[in-house]
Amino acid sequence: MAVTNRWAIRDVATASFFDQVTKKLKARLDTLKQSGLENTSDTVYTQGGSGNPKTVGFSGNRAAKFTLQDAHFTNGLIAMLLGTEVITAATPVRTNDIPTVTGGAVTLQHTPSSTGKLISVNKYLPDGTIGESFDYKSSSPSTGEYSITGKTVTFASSDIADGEKVIVYYNTMAGPDTKGIKAQTNRFAGSYELVLDVLVRDILTKKDYAAQITIPSAKIEDNWSMAMAPDGDPAVQDIAMEALAVPGSKDLYTMYIFDEADFT
Question: Residue ranges per domain, the chain?
Answer without folding.
Answer: 7-39+63-86+182-262, 91-179
